[in-house]
Structures are given as C-alpha cells and as structure tokens.
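Q: I have 842 residues here and want to know how they pack in 3D. Can you give me a structure?
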Amino acid sequence: MATPSANHAPDVSTPGLAPHAAAAVAPMGLSPNSSAYDAQGLPMHSPVPHSAAHATASTPTSTNPSAARSVKRPRPVKSCTECRKRKLKCDRNLPCAQCQKSHRNCRYSAEHDSSALSDASDAEPSDAQRPAKRNCAPVGGQGNNAGSANLGPPFSSARNGDINGASPLQELASRVDRLENHVLIKSPSAAEMPRLPLSPATIRGLTVKHGALQTRFFGQSSVRVLMNLFDEAKEFLATHADSAEFRDLMSALSRLHKLILDSYKESLTPMTVYVESTTPVRGRMQHVLPKREVCDKLLGSYIHTTETIYRIIHMPTFMAQYEMYWDGKLQGDTFLPQLLAICATGSRFEAKSKGLRKSIGTEFDGVHIPTACELVKSWLHSLKGKQLIDFTTLQTEMLLLQAMRMTAARPQVLWTQLGAILRMAMTMGMHRDPSEFEPQIPVFSAEMRRRMWFSILELDLHVSLVCSLPCSIREGDFTCKPPSNLDDKELFPEMVELPPSRPIDHGTDNQIQCYAAMTVGIRLKVVHMLNRIDSIRDYNEVLELGAKLELISEDIGYLFPRNNSLSDSEQSKMWRCRVVLDMHIRRPLLALYRPFALGSVDAPAQITRAYLTSSMVILQYLDELDPMLAHYQSVSDMYHLVLKRDMLQASLSLCYYIRAGLQSNAGPYSNLKLAALSPEPFDDARSYRAETPALWSPVRLIKTVDKSMDLLMRNVGGGDVKDIVALSVVLASVQTTAHEQKLHEIRRMLTVVLETCMRATNTNPELVHPPLPHPPPPLSINNNHPYLQAQVPGQQPPHYMLHPNPMAAAPTQDEETMIWDLEGLDPSWNLYWDQIMPLWSS
C-alpha cells in the first residue's frame, strides 16, 4: 500500500489517538482542481479513509483473500434520487427527462448527504465496520472554495421518507427562488430596457403664468396638447394670424368669441335675489322650482338620460316621496334638494333654454341651473354632525355634481369635488361589501350602497380620463361587489333576501350599470397605466388591456342589437343604451391607444387600427338615427352636450390620418403605421392606392370631420369658438401640401366658422365687424378640393364648403391687442395657446 503523502491526514495508528478521535479529524480530500488521474492517465494516490486506516493499523496483515479484499473508491452520485432508485439513466437536468415523463418530483441529494455517494461495493457486507464515505467536492466545481460555495444543491438534504428533512413545500419554494435568481442573472434588468419612444409634447402640457405662481396641467386629451401634432397649424397661429391678410378675419373671430363668452358667463351667474337672500333655504328652493307639469317632464328627462349608468336614487321610493311632496304630506328636508338638483339636470336636456335663462314663474319650462346648484350647496353647507354621513346626504352630493356637469364646469373642479365625495363614501364604509357587516345592514340598504358605490367609481373614472389625472381609488382598494341586475320594483325596504340576479342580457332598470360595473376593474387599470405611461417599456400590457376593452365593446352590440322592426321610441331607447355603454368603454380605449397611435412611429397595427375605428365610431353615433324623427334634434343636442370633448379629440385624430393618407398616396408608400385598416370597403376607396391595404380614404375622413364641425358650430357656446378655430385650421392645413393653397384653404375655413357661428348665435354682424369701406373681390371656389370632387354633379355643396366674402376692414388700435399675439412663442410649441390674446386664454 502506498505511503500517504504529507498532504494527507496523519496516520491514525499514531499512539495515543483514540479511534473516535481519529474519525473526528477533518480529512484533507482532493482539491477542487485535482483529478482522479494524473496527466499520464495513471491513477493518483487517493487518501485512505480514516476508518480503514484505523482498521489496518490495529489488525495485522492477513493472507486470507477476504481480508485482503480492496474497498472500491466511492464516487459522487450525479443522478437524481428517483432515477437512482429505479436504476434509470438520468440526463442530470433539473427536472430530468425521466421524471418529466413519469410526472415525478425530480430531486437531487444534498452535497453533504451520505446518499450522494455510491456504496463502496455491492458485494461488501453492510456492517458497522464498513468504511465511511468521504466528503467529495461538488461535481464540476472549479476555482476556489468561495466559488464552490455558491453552487448550492438543487434540493434540500431531505430524502424520500426522511421525516427530519424539509417539507415538499419548502423544497418547492427553494426551487422557485433558485430559478428566479438564475433567470434574473441571465435576463437583462428592467433598467436596461429602453422606454417606448413617446414625445412628452403629445402627452401633456403645463401653462405657467405670473412667475410660475399660477400653473395648470393639461393631459393628452386637451386640444392644446393635440395641436402639438400639427406643426403647420401652430405656425399659422403663431405667425400668419397677425399678418395683414388674416388680421381682419381673426379680429372678427375674436370679437365673436368675446360676445359668445360674455353672454355665456352672464347666464352662469346665479340670481342674487335667491342666493343672497336671508330667508330659509327651503323656501327659496320651493320658489325656484317650476310647476308640477314641468317637473314631470324634467324628472322623466333625467331618468332616461342620467339615471342609467349612474344609479343614485331608488325610483319607487323617490316617486312615492314625489307624490307626497306635491300633496303636501312629505315631512323632512332631504327630498327637496334632491328634486331641485334632478330638475336642474333635466333642464339641460328638456328645456328650450337649456337651463341657462334667468327667469322663473309658472310659464318657465325649466330651472336655472347655476341658481339651483347654489341653493343646494347652501343646504349642504348647513348640515352638521352625523347628517354629513347620512346616505341621503351622499345622494344629494352626487345629484348636485351631476347638475354642475351640465353647465360645462371645469373638469378639474369636478375632479377635486368628486375626490371629496369618494372619500366621504369611504368614511361611511361603502368601499367594503355590505355582506361583511351583516346583519346590521339590511338587504335593501346593502343593494343601494352597491349601486351608489359603483356610480361614484364610474363618475370618478370618467372625470379622471377627461382631466388625464389619477383616479381616487384603484382596483383592489375596495371589496364592494357589483350590483345585481334587478328592476327597482324588485327591491323594497322590508325585503329579507335579495332575489337572484338576472342574466346580463336580460333588460332591467339596472342592466347598464350592472354591465359597466363588470368592466370597472379593467378601466381602472387603464387610468393607472396612463399616469405611468413614461415607464412603459413594451406594448404587451397595452395590447392586453386594449384587446379586453375591444372585446367588451363588441359585446355591447349583442346586448343592445339594432332592430329595425322596433318602434321609433324603442329604437331610440336601444340607441341611447348602446351609446351610453359604448362611449364609457371607448373613452379609456382611446386614451390608452392615443399616445402610441399618434405619437409613436412603430406602434403595432392593432393600436392604430383600433384607435382610428373608435374615433370613427364616436363621430358616427348619430348616423344610426333617422334625421326625420320628431325628437332627432333633441337627441342631437344631447349628443353634442355629452360628447363635445370626444368629438374634438376624434376630429383632430382623423386630421392626423388624413394628412398621413394624403402623404402616402402622393408619394411612395412606405409606412402604414399612418393608416389603420378599414373594417369594410367604401365607395370612395377607389381613389386610394391599390398597393395599400383597404383604408378609409382621406375623402371619407374629410366628410366625417366636416359633418362633426357643422354640429359643433350649430351648437357653439361658451369658449367653443377657439377650439373650433383650431380644428378648422388643422383640417385646412392637412388637405394640401402647397403653401399658398394651404393659406387659401385656411382663410376659407375660418370664414365659414365666422358665418356659421354668427348664424347659430343670432349675432348682429355689426357687433362682429365694422362696415366695409370697399367691397372685397369674391374668392373663387377651389375645384380641386377633395370634398367637392366627391360631390354628385349638379348638387349644391353645403354652405360651409363655399367661399363667402371675407372681412377686409382694418382693425382699430384696441383691436390689435386682441389678435393672436404669438410673439415670443417657445420653439417647443407646448404652451402655444397661452401666447394668444387674453380673450382666448381661459
């Protein structure tokens, strides 16, 4: 037997060393870099096991063959425990192929486990004197000990049937941790992935005034932010608007804007005789309220327009109180403020004055909305203590907010007030499902709380999208379940059990809110994503949320199908339900896709296609109704009131695609991010290039924007003139590439805006422009205009497509201060509108 080298353990036969002490000595095994064979392929000397050495030293050499039997060198086991147990060939992966095939839990023995080493010899008797197995270095280990220590075993040291080992759950957790570390090491970190190329100018803007003491944030849906997509239109507003060619026209538009805005501001001023009176607020509210016949119409208008997706009141209970009020039998002060707020909201849709005329009396057909809102606010401010957490108080707060929306209040003001209402509801515990507090909350009250909570969420989501600001609550912050799809008559205060909810395709009083509540979680995710849009690094999450919203929008058509066999009133009701739901789904979809569809050069086709399709749908809602219907005009006015902002956004988006389509049609086709696929071919698509996919042609898009502009001009009011002017300049600038022709088209469009808005508001022309010293020469009609090319021969085009005579009078010195002064405009164009004359700054 070879003599051990100096590196080996000392001879255990040394006198004075006990056998158990010798076994406790740490053996000096092979180094990690050593091998069982030397360079010549000869076997190297291996250390003698301590137990074997002790036996050799204490026992004389025997000539018996059994005593001279050599012990095989134990080898580390590289197979998994399952393959070793079943004597199968293991590929040494984790998990191995054999375990995957048999669906077994693939495990490997621990490094210091005795089972990790093979037995010395199959023929060797297993007794207490069998040599102990030595500790081996990790398989494949290289380098120093520190490097070998990082290579942990794939499993814990527990073996099958070992009760002292780790549980399978702990082993699984250990496997997951190692797998995550392995993936993180080989995968690039999130910080190394580039962000999507989005321009901040097309996402947000900020107005800064008075040395940064006054600032206002504008999101991606603002007209001033969308204008950053059209450099030529902004250049015109910055330079050409003050030129001699356009000074007279812009001066007339500015005076028209001032007249309309001043008149609108005057109509929004509450009547001081009622607001500042010292009489009890209840008496003042009774005096403002019209007679019952008028209230009946206003109440019906509110129910059919607002009390659909926003379920605030229980109709049977409210109608019972309504009858008692007119009979003089109603006690309490909570009903009258609610009735006044409801009538104010209904006046915006039903009354001829739209709730903005300052008059009262039995002949008045509505309620003056600003006065009614101030009276309801006064009543709410008089509440104290526990009255502030009463459910009827929360109802009144929501009804007041709905009435304030009708007067086109700043959405930022609504956003802040709605945040207070939502937090008030949370202090009342409405964000938790009522079932958590049974039996303290009755069944009827529980369902009313669910309806109210999701009404608050729906309104908060809508206003947050308009303002491009975060919602006051996120998904997961509440446990309240969606309301049931039940009629109001099925719910009553004395009920002890809630009836089973109807299927979602079954029409009920609460069908719209019930379906909308099912989609709140997805839409809340969209709003949250929009507020962290700068950190998005790929399109996967965007496409996933967008695809879900598109599927939801498609399902709406099945819930409220188009049926020509229905009566006119039933078709109008179906249309209203379909539009209410569809617009609440398309608004977050458009907001989600807009930064990428209009601000990214490599947006996926799904985004551009869905964005353009949704924009067209928003602008074509009215096309489903027959213009010959008796109530078509009232429906059109309601459509304008509810969707005015959406119409402006969609029209500017179509202008973006009009420019892209004309550019791709005029030159070599290279990038079809610019035009989304059309769902169906159109007649006017023949003029489009044959090698491009089937698209909405520019002529079709121009027609749609022209029609929307006509509706905006016919219902002009407040500060709408500046938005209409911006849209007209953009539309004119994208229809042609020649500079002179572009200026000619802009002049024509602005003249159309001036004349149409004057007719819509019955404005005296002498108040808009002074008498003309010399009649100007008439402008010739542009026969190359794509809209006129699409006209039927012999058909007269609409009045706003012709070229009326422009105003050529020179402005006075005072007027020059009001004309689009854009000097010192920042090159980034982010805040272009603040440089316009003070009249145009809101």
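Q: Anything worth noting?
A: The first helix runs from residue 19 to 24. The chain is about 45% helix and 0% strand.
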